[in-house]
Fold this protein.
Amino acid sequence: MDTVKTRWYFLLLMLRLSGARLGAFLRQLGRHPTALLGLVVLAVYLCAALFAPWIAPHDPRQGDIAYRLEPPGTPGFVLGTDHVGRDMLSRLIYGARVSLLVGFVSVIISMVLGTVLGAVAGYFRGWFDQVLSRFSELLMAFPFLIFAIGVMAIMGPGFVNLIGALTFKSWVEFFRLARGEVISEKSREYVEASRASGLSHARVILSEILPNIIHSVIVLATLRLGHLIITEASLSFLGIGVQPGVPAWGSMVNDGREFIFVAWWTSTLPGLVLIVLVLAINLFGEGLRDILDPRLKLD
């Protein structure tokens, strides 16, 4: 019985500490109004993506040619319809699912893979570091979008292929950041003391070094999220992103190009929601950098 009480006490203590940290983070975020605005806008997009089946007024894939190119404000179609009579609002809401899911999955995979490889390479150095460093330099020589187009041209359109194409190159930046940070940190006194106390190399990396560099990794992930979302939209615009028929902002812009002078909303609205989302992510990322980076904290 005492063991159960101890466990509950420990759980409540951890919850209190987490709540205190969250409260401190929100207070610091309040000192950055633009970052807070970015977080609010991002939260709105996330809610729209999560609850799309309950929010969207129509099926995003079903159209009625009788309501073709209806302007915004038409009864039943708040933001109008596209060239085949599909509701623009519903397609924009479901398009948020594609952009956010592809962006988040790609950046998480890239962050984990790049950080792990960079930490190992920076800590142990040697041939492993040399091979990965030269390979990362080779990948960095290719422009990101051109490289992604080439990969998608080989693999073909599709959700999984799109994430693979974005991840195949985006891990490099996390690798280079983690490698440089670990090389800098491993010569510090606290790392030497951990080694002298008998901790294994894995424990030193995981429990001593990574907690001191994770803030840089998180900030980079936040900033790269917007870039990956733009790249996904660009690939969808070119017709080599997600599979045809899936609502995606990039493909919606492409579909509306032909009607831009008679139905401006078909291309303009997807472009606007994309711009607002990426701007919100960048604003939040800049504020997050000021909060998490001890070298940039406000007095």
User: Anything to note?
Assistant: The radius of gyration is 23 Å. The chain has a mean pLDDT of 83. The chain is about 75% helix and 0% strand.
